[in-house]
Amino acid sequence: MTNKIVISIIILISFLAKNKSMVFAGFVILLLSFLNNDNLNNLPKNYFLNIGMTFLMIWMLSPLLDKENNLQLLNMKSYLNIEAIVSFIVGFFIVIIAAKGLNFLNNNQSVLTGVITGSIIGVTFFGGIPVGILTASGITFLIIKIIKH
């Protein structure tokens, strides 16, 4: 019952903050919580991350549909500037950090709770975008590893 109250509070806060994505996600989870079916309740854990990542990749690759961007992608000069080089290096390391974060998140309940709460607050009150959860977990993993070392 407590989880339904928490989900309802998240929906209410998200509605007041006009965060449609979080409201929708909250309603889906609230609906699943009433069904009490283990197979359905495991659906988000087992499939939604991959589905979400797939849609994120589609969004990321969508500029390739633009003919002007295709010409720019073939131009080597567009890769030889400070923004392109730094973004390449950061992108490379972030995906590795996010992979570490996923394992850390799945094996540590307190990290899961902290990252979810921080993400909900960031999205709801500060206009954040909830794509950094795995990266946040990865950065948490690195910081904890440094502290314990």
From TrEMBL:
Membrane topology field: Multi-pass membrane protein
Keyword set, alphabetical order: Cell membrane, Membrane, Transmembrane, Transmembrane helix
InterPro entries from the UniProt entry: UPF0756_TM
Pfam family, one: DUF441
Protein's cellular compartments: Cell membrane
GO cellular component: plasma membrane
Repeat keyword on record: no
Transmembrane segments: 7-35, 47-66, 78-99, 111-144
Similarity field: Belongs to the UPF0756 family.
Designated name of the protein: UPF0756 membrane protein FYJ27_02665
